[in-house]
Amino acid sequence: MNGTAVRNEFAKMRHLHLGLLIALLGVIMLGIGLFSSLGSPDFDRATQDSWNTLIGGTASGITLAAPLLLAAIASRQVDIEHQGNGWLMSATSGITPGGLCRAKFLALGLLVAGATVVTSGLLAGAGLLLGITAPFPAGRWIGFTAALLAVNLVLIALHTLIAARVENQLVGIGIGLLGTILALFGTAVPAWISHLTPWGYYALATASGYVDGVLVAVTPAYLSIAALCVIAGVAFLLLTRQFDRKEA
Amino acid sequence: MSLVVSTEKLTKSYGSRTVVQDLDLRIPEGCVYGFLGPNGSGKSTTMKMLLSLIRPSNGQVQIMGRPMNRSTRRELLGKIGSLIESPPGYGHLTGRENMRITQRLLGLNDQQIDFAVRTVRMQNQMDKKVREFSLGMKQRLGIAMALARQPRLLILDEPTNGLDPAGIEEIRDLLRRLAEGGITVMVSSHLLGEIDKTATMLGILSQGQMIFQGTRDQLFSAATPDVLIDCTHPSRAQQLFARHHQTTLENSTLRLPGADDRTTAGVVAALVSEGIGVYGVRRDEQTLEQIFMSLTAGGGL
């Protein structure tokens, strides 16, 4: 895998409407983040509650939209190889199937990372434009964004592998749908249950939450998310290397 | 004559099932090598082993005098164009965008891409999306992708599969032109008629084993066509040889199978000595298709 393979992945994205799907992810994050904040009784521009409601709303938006949209994004980018005999064509040009998966992950990861960071920035900007006077919690906001980004990347890696391994793309989309349910339940179940699936980590990434009915700032579960990243990264490398050894 | 491809006892097994067995391929430089065999005879598996897409269970592959293995694979693949299974091409992209992907992947310049596209005569179709291409156009685009790297060896797996007669003729013409340009072409087919006019060398595979390898003329001579004898008393002649040869009578012509030149001379001498006038001795004209069918025993064609 090399930079050329990643550049080619961007070239293959033409006409796949991935930009639309990624924009949709951003719009849903932004929309739900703003809508739920402005509609919340806790939204007080003068206190940290305003930022907390914005963080909570953003977390809800991404929990609702990301699992399915990330599955669809990865599926579209990988399915073209199944449809166009691309695995063999790349293999005979020196790019192994595992290398192709790694290139796809990097290309999609860059897009998703960009969308996550830009949307997060837009939300912070929107908060300031809405007249929030409470000090901007920069550290917590950056940590929250990084945690969301990490979970998004883990899911992109997972769905890239699923789409490559299982030719029927409905399987990956179905898993994405199931992930949405698990992500939504993640906010309502004990933290240890959220640790069991990658979708549950959206609940662990949030930087605000209700404790005894009061909205408070919380620290994202950085350690757990870092552990998820390490495990997912190692698994992704091992599995893509296994793809390399798989015979055509 | 230098060999572009040679294999020694090349074997591929999946569990107890042997798909290719002890294959000794010899592909001379600059030839069109027709790789023939019924469906399931191991042609695609062999081609994939040549390209190092699957590992042989036993034996070795030499490409351009070098062993094909993990360490040489990438470098050697840069000199081999290939079209394996279905033609490649991203349907949502245009022909030109597909070629650009190949160009970037292999680090080629615009001239190399233009040359490949013109060789397959696709220069006027490149702005169409590949999903709108006919099968023949997809095959030609696939060949252009394979040709773009200006390979010394081109490996094509059933490139005429599913094409209409005009499409088949186009591919034949293309193969001829490529060979004239000095490229060694290995082309597989399960239909002899599709490539026998193009191939200068033939390899016939049946149930994973090479049953013939050589030129068309060698194939003819290996098959030993029947001897047909016209004589004054055909019934008597048949009775005369009934004990020693499996002769048959066809419209007053005696058919003598499996007779070499010496046997034929002996038969004619025996007929003359018995007072039977011989006024015609010739070999039956067999088509390559008939020879191929008899060699592969009709193997599921």
UniProtKB/TrEMBL annotation, chain B:
The EC class name is hydrolase
Span of the secretion signal?
A: none
Q: Which residues form a coiled coil?
A: none
Family matches, as SMART domains: AAA
| Pfam families recorded | ABC_tran (PF00005)
Q: Which GO terms describe its molecular function?
A: ATP binding; ATP hydrolysis activity
Keywords recorded for this protein, A-Z: ATP-binding, Hydrolase, Nucleotide-binding, Transport
List its EC numbers. 3.6.3.-
Q: Which domain of life is it from?
A: Bacteria
The record's comment on protein family reads: Belongs to the ABC transporter superfamily.
Its protein name is Daunorubicin/doxorubicin resistance ATP-binding protein DrrA
